[in-house]
């Protein structure tokens, strides 16, 4: 088990950094915002709390929540235009600094591709570096389910994405940063997990993570050390 000092060294020398999106890169939970927008906010927020606590499988929770929301294509697009995701303070500067150092940055999210791509655009992250869930719609725009073949649609999916990235790009050190149980579970195969509590603190993650931060400035300072 790596010490905190060793984890910091891995972060400083990483060739790829993967960020969770909801409650990490952005301030809100995308699925909860979509639920509120569609009028079923309270019921879905409770399901999200259970999923983030790790008491139900991610796919089961996602299926149940989307079954309640049943968002149309038009509603998803209107949510992005009317209530665009709010970036967490410090993330823009951190991603920019990582890019300057030649580090590849990925967004690995249990949220939805259309919302996460909008976030990627704001951070100059290529859409090819986005791994998220894809909603499916009928030809008339009504909700038709989600793509269950995406690795991010199930528990352990973020670890599968990291394994794929290591195999495809031969990365030596991959860091995962996020607020939830699904992020922590991605290490291994990730080489370092950094728990993030700047928007919401998940008790289980705060207690178990060797390295836990509440502001991205803490990571910017680490990069300036070298």
Automatic annotation (TrEMBL):
The protein's Enzyme Commission number: 3.1.3.3
Pathway: Amino-acid biosynthesis; L-serine biosynthesis; L-serine from 3-phospho-D-glycerate: step 3/3
Active site: 20 (nucleophile), 22 (proton donor)
InterPro entries: HAD-like_SerB, HAD-like_sf, HAD_sf, PSP
GO MF annotation terms: L-phosphoserine phosphatase activity; magnesium ion binding
Cofactor requirements of the protein: Mg(2+)
Gene Ontology biological process terms from the UniProt entry: L-serine biosynthetic process
Reaction catalysis annotation: O-phospho-D-serine + H2O = D-serine + phosphate; O-phospho-L-serine + H2O = L-serine + phosphate
Domain of life: Eukaryota
This protein's UniProt keywords: Amino-acid biosynthesis, Hydrolase, Magnesium, Metal-binding, Serine biosynthesis
Gene Ontology CC: one annotated term: cytoplasm
EC primary class: hydrolase
Similarity field: Belongs to the HAD-like hydrolase superfamily. SerB family.
Functional description taken from the UniProt entry: Catalyzes the last irreversible step in the biosynthesis of L-serine from carbohydrates, the dephosphorylation of O-phospho-L-serine to L-serine. L-serine can then be used in protein synthesis, to produce other amino acids, in nucleotide metabolism or in glutathione synthesis, or can be racemized to D-serine, a neuromodulator. May also act on O-phospho-D-serine.
Entry protein name: Phosphoserine phosphatase
């Amino acid at each position: 088990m790596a010490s905190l000092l060793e984890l910091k060294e891995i972060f400083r020398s990483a060739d790829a950094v993967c960020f969770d999106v909801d409650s990490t890169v952005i301030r809100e939970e995308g699925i909860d915002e979509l639920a509120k927008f569609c009028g079923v906010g309270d019921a879905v927020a409770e399901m999200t709390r259970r999923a983030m606590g790790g008491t139900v499988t991610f796919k089961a929770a996602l299926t149940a929540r989307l079954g309640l929301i049943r968002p149309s294509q038009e509603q998803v697009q209107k949510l992005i235009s009317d209530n665009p995701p709010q970036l967490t303070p410090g993330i823009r500067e951190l991603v920019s600094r990582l890019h300057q150092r030649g580090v590849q940055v990925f967004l690995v999210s249990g949220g939805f591709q259309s919302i996460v791509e909008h976030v990627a655009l704001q951070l100059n992250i290529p859409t090819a570096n986005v791994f998220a869930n894809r909603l499916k719609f009928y030809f008339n725009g009504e909700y038709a389910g989600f793509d269950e073949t995406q690795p991010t649609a199930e528990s352990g999916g973020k670890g599968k994405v990291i394994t794929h990235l290591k195999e495809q790009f031969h990365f030596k050190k991959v860091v995962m940063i996020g607020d939830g149980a699904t992020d922590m579970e991605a290490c291994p195969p990730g080489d370092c997990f950094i728990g993030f509590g700047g928007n919401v603190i998940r008790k289980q993650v705060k207690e178990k993570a060797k390295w836990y931060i509440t502001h991205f400035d803490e990571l910017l300072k680490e990069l300036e050390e070298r």
